[in-house]
């Protein structure tokens, strides 16, 4: 139960990131979240939309795992592992904050899935 909630929350987070990066990248609130200027957001909107699409794929995989139920354990672990790696890479290359937004929650979800809680 806890594992399913964590997987669902991480899926929702990545759907939210998809919306920010694909559709709201140049909005003032989104720029504040990502710490970007209007000029930078304008110059990188296609790149951000591409990143948003990848976040959507992560969310879709996690939703698929939930839909499969107990048989989706392996699918959940694969996509959570992808989120964990992306979070660690982002923390090293972009901002340490990504470690706490993506990597730590995915690590907790992986632990919950492996423990079957």
Short note summarizing the structure:
The protein has 117 residues and is mainly α. The protein has six helices and no strands.
Principal-axis shape? elongated
Secondary-structure element pattern, one letter each:
HHHHHH
Count of folded domains: 1
- The poorly predicted ranges are none
End-to-end gap: 6 Å
Task: Please explain how this structure is put together.
There is one protein chain. This protein is mainly alpha-helical and 117 residues long. It has one domain. Helix content is 84%, strand content 0%. It has 6 helices and no strands. α4 (45-68) runs antiparallel to α5 and α5 (73-93) packs antiparallel against α6.
Write the layout of secondary structure elements.
Layout: H1 2-22, H2 28-34, H3 38-43, H4 45-68, H5 73-93, H6 97-115
Helix pairs in contact: 1-4, 1-6, 4-5, 5-6
Key structural traits:
84% helix, mainly alpha, 6 helices, 117 residues
């Amino acid at each position: 139960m806890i594992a399913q909630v964590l997987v669902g929350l991480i899926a929702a987070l990545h759907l939210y990131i998809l919306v920010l990066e694909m559709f709201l990248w140049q909005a003032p609130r989104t720029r504040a979240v990502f710490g970007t200027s209007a000029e930078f957001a304008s110059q990188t909107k296609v790149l951000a939309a591409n990143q948003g699409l990848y976040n959507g794929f992560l969310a879709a995989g996690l939703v698929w795992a939930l839909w499969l139920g107990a048989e989706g354990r392996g699918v959940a672990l694969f996509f959570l592992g992808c989120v964990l790696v992306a979070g660690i890479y982002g923390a090293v290359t972009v901002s340490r904050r990504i470690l706490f937004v993506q990597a730590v929650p995915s690590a907790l979800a992986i632990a919950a899935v492996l423990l079957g809680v």
